[in-house]
Amino acid sequence: MALDAVFRDQWGRVLAILAGILGDLELAEDAAAEAFAIAAERWPRDGEPANPTGWLVATARHRAIDQLRRQQVLAAKTKLLARDLEFTSRGPEALMDDAATIPDERLELIFACCHPALAPESQVALTLRTLGGLSTEEIALAFLVPFETMSKRLTRAKHKIRDAGIPFAVPPDHQLPDRLAAVLAVVYLTFNQGWGGSRVDLAAEAIHLGRALAGLMPDEPEVLALLALMLLNDARKAARERDGLIIPLDDQDRARWDTRQIDEGRALLQRAVARARSGPYLIQAAIADLHLHEPRDWRQIAALYQALARQTGSPVVEMNRAIAVAEIDGPEAGLAILDRLDLDHYRYFHSTRAGLLRRAGRDAEAHDAYRRALALVQTEQEQRFLAGRLAETAPAAQDEPGMPGAFPA
Amino acid sequence: MQYALLVYSPAEDTDRAARPVPDSLVAQLGRPHVTGWTRLHADESATTLRGDGGRMLLTDGPFIDSKEYLAGLILIEAVNLDGALAIAADLFQEIRPGSAIEVRPVLGGHFRGA
Question: Closest partner residue to B105 among A165, A167, A169, by Cβ?
Fold first, then answer.
């Protein structure tokens, strides 16, 4: 296995174990970074060890103990070291030999990173840094934030975990639903940020995290459903854009859809459905699946959006329901739903309204709505798409053939 | 781990000193994880010392003038933040509406009871 791939694979695992032992993410990161640096130097020369995780953890542990000694805070950490000694009571050589005894503590790490005592933006940054293994610079770039800001955000979060005693633990059953929802929200936010278009492939990072979660919590339907949802959306990536323009779903070349991702997504959806417990990601994954069928079952889609609206109370969900209703009962029916929503700050609301207004033959109002969407736009592709629509609905362009479909794709 | 629970309460129109601590709150304060507590007079009774160009200045009132004032401080022992938050959540049920509890880890100190 190529060294880079091994490292990427091992970073989260090694960090999780160290963080659990030391209770200090910063110390764990420094120690892990040193261990990986040593590995990068030695493994190409001496060959990869039979148990890379064990090797890395043992090496990092030694560096961490050295660091603590140098800082002369050993006394304060004796409680931690006692647990550490218990953990390695079979001796460091045993640790390196037996992969089976090394617990996978990545779940504990992710629940610590997504603790409600941390601000949401800190949860996202910390999860990507620790489990995703992204550099501070990569995360700053992906979220369009200055490096200094992101660096301080991460440092503050790590210090808070250490000083306030945020535990590295899977929450007890009665807290698990809420805490898991926070973790899934972080992953999904990361995935959606990836649509914006930046040098870091956040969508791929989110899917990577989703896979890790699905492996660690294979019986949780919402975890499986989120991964399904991300795969079903990501599968259309190649067809979604052509010559820098966004192609709506109806106009996409289906041959460019990734069938492996679709198959995998559908299999996960089946597994999630079999758990017989509904949740927002399950419904969204089911909707994503329905959108891939031709012709689309708009009644089913509308019904699912209704169920989702009831579960989440989200106006964006209602907006999407309006699109489905418009397919069944015509654009005016869809517009009636949109008129009840307060989403003035949301660019997709205006573009959706514009699309329906156009289908209803209300071109002047459609033109205004496209203009409002354009004012809120965030990427170049969206800008070009909307500018195109704006031109089509301009007063002079009344005789151009209409293009149906609302955005997004 | 030790945590300090800072209770902030909105201003009250009745005389605070004349109102005893509710029994349910007293019961909570008596639990073994509470290592100390103090209930403060309302902030009108406060006097603040601060520096002003090398001199020490006295002002009438609290340091921070706000709608909610620091009403009390409760020291607790808990395994980790989740434990501290659970204790704070129980206390939260017994304090006045509009109040807030700030949970801050203790760096060090000593409390001699009164």
Answer: A165
